[in-house]
Amino acid sequence: MSAITSTQAPPAVGDGRGATFVDVILPLPLAAAFTYRLPSEFEGQAAVGCRVTVPFGNKKLYSAIVVRLHHQPPHGCAVKEVLEVIDASPILLPQQLELWQWIADYYLCTLGDVYKAALPSGMKLESESVVALNPDYEPDATLRPSERTVLLALQGKLEQKVAELQKATAVRNILPVVKQLLERGAVVMKEEIKRTYKPKTVACVRLTEAFFSEAELTRVLGEMHQRSPKQEALLLRYLDVAQASVALRMANPQLLVEVEKQALLREFSQAVLSAVRDKGVLEVYEKTVGRLAADVLPQDLKLRALSPAQQTAHDAICRAWEQHPVCLLHGVTSSGKTEVYIHLIKEAIDRGEQVLYLLPEIVLTAQLVERLKRVFGDRLGVYHSKYPDAERVEVWQKQLSDQPYDILVGVRSSVFLPFQRLGLVIVDEEHETSFKQQDPAPRYHARNVALVLAAKVGARTLLGTATPSLESYYQTQQGRYGLVELTERYQQLQLPEIRVADVKELRRKKLMKGLFSPELHTAIRTALERGEQVILFQNRRGYAPQMECHTCGWTPRCQSCDVSLTYHKGTRAMTCHYCGSSYPVPMQCPNCEGRELSTIGYGTERVEDLVHEAFPAARIGRMDLDTTRSREAYEQIIADFQHGRTDILVGTQMVTKGLDFERVSVVGILNADTMLNMPDFRAYERAFQMLSQVAGRAGRHGRRGLVILQTKSPDAEVVAQILHNDYAGLYSSQMEERLAFRYPPFTRLTYVFVKHRDVQVVEQLAHQLSQLLRQVFSTRVQGPVVPPVGRVKLFYIRQFSLKVETTVDARQVRQRLAQIQAYLLSLPQYKSAQVYYDVDPV
Asked: Cβ atoms within 10 A of the Cβ of 279, count?
């Protein structure tokens, strides 16, 4: 791992001889650390891993993280000073900084990118520009209307943020106007640190020290009894709520517990409380309280006994760890892998270790957390993006405290949390692509980062799944990971029966007109009559993925991206799923002015409507990105289905991932071809994993489940492998293909992207990059090509593929790629271009 290098900060004053300096990293896409002088008043306060406030550029202020303290001033220049030491103790542990450096090196990004991704927003402070009137300025006739508007908006206010000023004035581009006013001396501008995290407080009431005396308290109660009975009643109520008598308070003052102000205001007015406070008897103060919810579930301290098959797997995992720090648990769906995890977690905690439990999707946390809380109670914490940022800050702080969580359940960002005694890492559903961060950088894979984290601290790792990634399974075959297989379902339940519906043939025979094959329609009706539940899987959200003019074939497309718009019936809008832009639904074709516009294809919204039409009495839920934008929304959808308040659940890939519902007897895969026909070397692997996983939601308790798989390609090899749960056959056939065409795990794959708003610039840059890459890597380079979506958010994109043998030194490859990137972006014609890498893409 290369060391963090230091670069001088922008010039300031002084030569710094004999002073202390700190090297810091900033939450900006900058590769180097920057050096600042530590003022004498902060000597002894700053440490590696602490945050400090520093100026950067002309005016901006940022919270930076100290990575080194030293006494070596940069040669030949002055440095700026640290303005504030934010933390009394480090917020980053040494192993975290090491992990950040590894991520930056391996995934070819900057330390600033990692910093920005790793910390909750409330821990990354950044200054805001604030504008105020100059009281000495005298307006003149040369002021423009826009300048007068801004000055008018500032009158009567001490200062205003630039964003607020733009909103108040409705001036479209306000920065040039403010700049002109600055030049005139009409306004002044400064930077203020924006602190988004504030500790949660509640107003509490307590007895003042003057009335700890029983005599004083008795006297004031007597006065209140004669003159103000309501005040007497409030004071007596306070003492009652505090659960301590006057005599007891005299003997042991700390026994009088704090009383929340709101508890008194339920019975008394604010005026009465204020009167008692004004007499000096009670005082109101703010008490800091945590946002992290206490456990309210009844705890079941006894673990469930493992079945013989589960116990065998548990023991085999422990033996495998004696030889390999990483073990893969390959267990069929509903085999009880989670129960094995719980026993291993309990054993780790008993050894005094902490556990990181990684999940691919937020939707999985609700069911799992409830299950784990019943065993481990408040020893378990949860960390993911649907939680408010303030809660995530407090989870981070708790992990640094003397009483951290013993178990932390979370999604990919959880790998960045501080752990003081990490002993076990569990990566559930390790095959899931959701573990890979796409945009922005760092484009890391949480499973692989977790493996590195565990190796750095000497922890064991367990990868668990019913459908292992081919790369992980390959590692077991090479003897690098341990392998344990759990081949039977819990209580020896049968795997679901999978039947294939040949959609092409059914339509040819005119036996299928709509979305549901006759067999699927019958299976749904039968399940509903039995009081059972159904899951319908359609991996497209929205109402329809496309709209088309019947006359000329025109299709609405995004103005910023090279992609057609998806029709969303709920919002009555055409939406781009790449940039998020929305457009009104066209009433007529702008190309031929025809009015016959129709939707093409099926999204989950449309499926929901069709299910309503076919089964009007059924209670239907929908689970996709549009319906699960908040933490409460997805928890409610899962709870409704789990408790039988929903009969049919329509969903995207969210419904495929590890959810456990007792009454699901039928699963319908409405269109398997969208996965089988993806232009990707992993298409069959992904199809096998996703379709096997969604099939595994059926028949998990009691009756054998039924899966109807609708496809136009019933003879595809992967369909037969799914039917027979033939993972070994999939592995064998896919390994042959990957070896022949030099794909992972036999090579290391990196995608190289170039972006620019001008298509000519991006073509020129791609051509020059192609020459440089081929000079170094020869035939290992493929491209440039236009990706399936060749323009996103107004940026044109070109893509290269780089396949390098696993025997080649990966560090040298990364160094060469970084050098090429730095050289190209240093050229003036490419100053606004982007060159970036996606290492180990999925």
From this structure: 16
- Model pLDDT for residues 27-74, shown as the tens digit of each residue: 999 888 899 999 988 988 999 999 999 988 877 888 999 999 999 888
For 29, 102, 336, 440, the CA distances from 107, given in Å and listed in that order, are 13, 8, 35, 12
Contact between 576 and 563 under an 8 Å Cβ cutoff? The reply is yes
Q: Which residues pair with 502 in a beta bridge?
A: 711
Q: Helices 111-118 & 94-106, crossing angle to 10 degrees?
A: 120
- pLDDT tens track for 401-428: 999 999 999 999 999 999 999 999 999 9
What is the three-state SS of 484-498? Answer: EEECCCHHHCCCCEE
What's this model's pTM, rounded to 2 decimal places?
0.83
Specify the 3-state DSSP secondary structure of 308. Answer: helix
Apex CA 272: angle with CA 270 and CA 274, to 5°?
65
DSSP string for residues in 534-602: EEEE-S--SSBSEEEETTT----B-SSSSSBPEEETTTTEEE-TTT--EEEPPSS-TTT----EEEES-
The beta strand positions in 384-421, using DSSP E, are 407-410
CB atoms inside a 10 Å sphere around CB 450: 25
Beta strands (DSSP E) in 71-148 are 84-85, 126-133
Could you report the per-residue pLDDT of 719-750, keeping only the tens digit for each?
Answer: 999 988 899 999 999 999 999 999 999 999 99
Closest CA to 425 of 412, 439, 434: 412
DSSP letter at 631? H
Which two structure tokens, joined as six digits, stand for 749? 């794959």
The Cα–Cα gap between 621 and 629 comes to 15
| Tokens coding 717 | 């090899």
> For residues 835 and 644, what is the distance between their CA atoms, to the nearest angstrom?
51
What are the structure tokens assigned to 581, written together? 């832009």
Distances in Å between the alpha carbon of 176 and those of 67, 144, 172, 183, 346? 38, 12, 10, 11, 61
Rounded distance, CA 546 to CA 555, Å? 7
Report d(CA 622, CA 627) in Å as an integer.
7
Q: Give the 3-state secondary structure of residue 616.
A: coil
Cα 750 versus chain centre, distance: 23
- Is omega for the bond preceding 199 within 30 degrees of 0, making it cis? no
Contacts with 32 (C-beta within 8 Å, 6 or more apart), sequence order: 4, 5, 6, 7
Quick: pLDDT tens for 659-684.
777 788 899 999 998 888 888 899 99
How far apart are alpha carbons 764 and 833 in whole angstroms?
A: 11
Longest dimension (CA), the chain: 98
